[in-house]
């Protein structure tokens, strides 16, 4: 499945254990209420209701979508959407945590985004500043760039599918709802998407990466003018006809205040996909570049990266689990800002050259910067992709002693120790880390650095001792 799946397949062939976002995700049966407390309803969608839930182990708030099983909504469709999402690793794409099912429903657990829809923000404030709109669109484009790099077309980009992480001023946006998404090289089964935002070729032929760019262009025009280019037409069929005949009201673009914003929208809404921007081109457009928030390089974050020590596969998995579920939002927000300031092409990973540019700003010494980056990739690139991906960065750039505080280690141990007997067995590891390919994983080797007495399992003391020893190495 796109780059993410092929990368995992390659890594499984070369390396027996793949550490990545999909490791802890699988379709579970059993009692969901053993893992979650349901707090309150958040809303209803076409597929079912969404509730706010609390994860009992981590005490983290999450959103749970409850979907009724039917002929239209079956396990294959749900699995397809979740399989697409579970390989994404980007700060502007909603994170999926777990899947459950019972005899009548599927339950998909996502990260909780408390800031509401981008459309709600627009309705509340009536008018957003152009710089703020450009910053939101930049984040959408970065999310789409990650999707496209992974070989996925979203197919339903619209403000209703853009949520704000919180109600804070500098809150990140997240792209959600991959129910219509498909691999780039797969033909459309039917017309999917929302008529107001759908691209011409998605109606008449097949959607592709440029179709997401069109949808983003319509959304940008809507945010900048408060209107759609359909001359007040509301009938979905008539709107689709206007789009396919190239009869939309391009004059609406002239109502945009600045020339750079006008030029940007025109390139996003070129009728011929060949002349339309790619996501990468859109990210480099002067309107986006001039209005982006530039976070200063934080020397402490880069020093943490430099000091990070290599660790075993199981340690890597534990650290990623802690970073994704237990890191406080203030610390994570600081790291996200640093990550995005270094991720110059917005694809959700730091290449060798992007890391080197960051260290050059500190050292102004090319040889020293090159040496540091080589060491960072050797120790922090857990999945051997020759890049530092978002979840890898969160681990390597964190203060290690904050990441492995005793209460966090205790919670992770309880997660693995399924029967609560004070020992983690290989069977329990397999159950929790169900995203690992069992045939290719040498589980005894995986626990070797934790299993100090060689009895084939990990005691509570062994678990703590191994992680505390690692903390001493990083000080």
TrEMBL record:
Domain EF-hand, residue spans: 330-365, 404-439, 443-473
PROSITE patterns, per database record: EF_HAND_1, EF_HAND_2, PROTEIN_KINASE_DOM, PROTEIN_KINASE_ST
GO terms classed as biological process: intracellular signal transduction
Cofactors: Mg(2+)
InterPro entries (alphabetical): CDPK_Ser/Thr_kinases (IPR050205), EF-hand-dom_pair (IPR011992), EF_Hand_1_Ca_BS (IPR018247), EF_hand_dom (IPR002048), Kinase-like_dom_sf (IPR011009), Prot_kinase_dom (IPR000719), Ser/Thr_kinase_AS (IPR008271)
Domain Protein kinase residue range list: 36-288
A GO term for molecular function: calcium ion binding
CDD domains membership: EFh
Keywords: ATP-binding, Calcium, Kinase, Nucleotide-binding, Serine/threonine-protein kinase, Transferase
Annotated Gene Ontology cellular component terms: cytoplasm; nucleus
Protein family per UniProt: Belongs to the protein kinase superfamily. Ser/Thr protein kinase family. CDPK subfamily.
The name this protein goes by in its record: Protein kinase domain containing protein
């Amino acid at each position: 499945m796109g780059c993410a799946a092929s990368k995992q397949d390659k890594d499984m062939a070369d390396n027996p254990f793949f550490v990545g976002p999909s490791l802890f995700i699988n379709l579970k049966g059993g009692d969901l209420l053993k893992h979650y407390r349901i707090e309150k309803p958040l809303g209803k969608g076409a597929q079912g209701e969404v509730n706010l839930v609390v994860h009992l182990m981590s005490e983290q708030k999450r959103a749970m979508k409850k979907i009724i099983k039917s002929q239209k909504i079956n396990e294959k469709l749900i699995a397809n959407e979740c399989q697409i999402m579970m390989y994404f690793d980007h700060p502007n794409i909603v994170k999926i945590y777990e899947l459950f099912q019972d005899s009548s429903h599927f339950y998909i657990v996502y990260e909780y985004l408390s800031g509401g829809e981008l459309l709600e923000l627009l309705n509340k404030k009536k008018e957003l500043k152009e710089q703020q709109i450009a910053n939101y669109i930049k984040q959408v484009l970065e999310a789409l760039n990650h999707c496209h790099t992974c070989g996925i077309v979203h197919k339903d980009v619209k403000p209703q599918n853009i949520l704000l992480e919180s109600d804070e001023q500098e809150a990140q946006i997240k792209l959600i709802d991959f129910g219509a998404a498909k691999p780039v090289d797969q033909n459309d089964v039917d017309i999917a998407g929302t008529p107001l935002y759908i691209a011409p070729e998605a109606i008449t032929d097949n959607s592709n990466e440029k179709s997401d760019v069109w949808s983003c262009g319509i959304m940008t025009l809507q945010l900048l003018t408060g209107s759609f280019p359909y001359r007040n037409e509301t009938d979905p069929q008539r709107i689709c006809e206007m789009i396919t005949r190239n009869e939309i009201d391009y004059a609406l673009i002239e109502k945009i205040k600045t020339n750079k914003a006008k030029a940007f929208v025109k390139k996003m809404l070129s009728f011929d996909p060949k002349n339309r921007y790619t996501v990468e081109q859109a990210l480099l457009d002067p309107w986006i570049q001039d209005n982006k928030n530039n976070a200063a390089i934080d020397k402490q974050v880069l020093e943490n990266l430099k000091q990070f020590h290599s660790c075993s596969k199981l340690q890597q998995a534990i650290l990623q689990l802690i970073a994704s579920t237990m890191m406080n939002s203030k610390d994570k927000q600081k790291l996200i800002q640093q990550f995005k300031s270094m991720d110059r092409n917005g694809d959700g990973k730091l290449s060798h050259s992007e890391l080197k540019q960051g260290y050059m700003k500190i050292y102004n010494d090319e040889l020293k910067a090159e040496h540091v980056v080589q060491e960072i990739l050797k120790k922090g690139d857990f999945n051997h992709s020759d890049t530092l991906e978002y979840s890898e960065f969160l681990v390597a750039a964190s203060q290690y002693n904050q990441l492995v505080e005793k209460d966090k280690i205790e919670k992770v141990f309880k997660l693995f120790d399924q029967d609560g007997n004070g020992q983690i067995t290989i069977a329990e590891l397999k159950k929790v880390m169900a995203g690992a390919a069992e045939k290719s994983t040498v589980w005894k080797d995986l626990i070797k650095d934790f299993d100090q007495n060689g009895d084939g399992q990990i005691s509570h003391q062994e678990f703590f001792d191994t992680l505390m020893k690692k903390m001493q190495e990083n000080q």
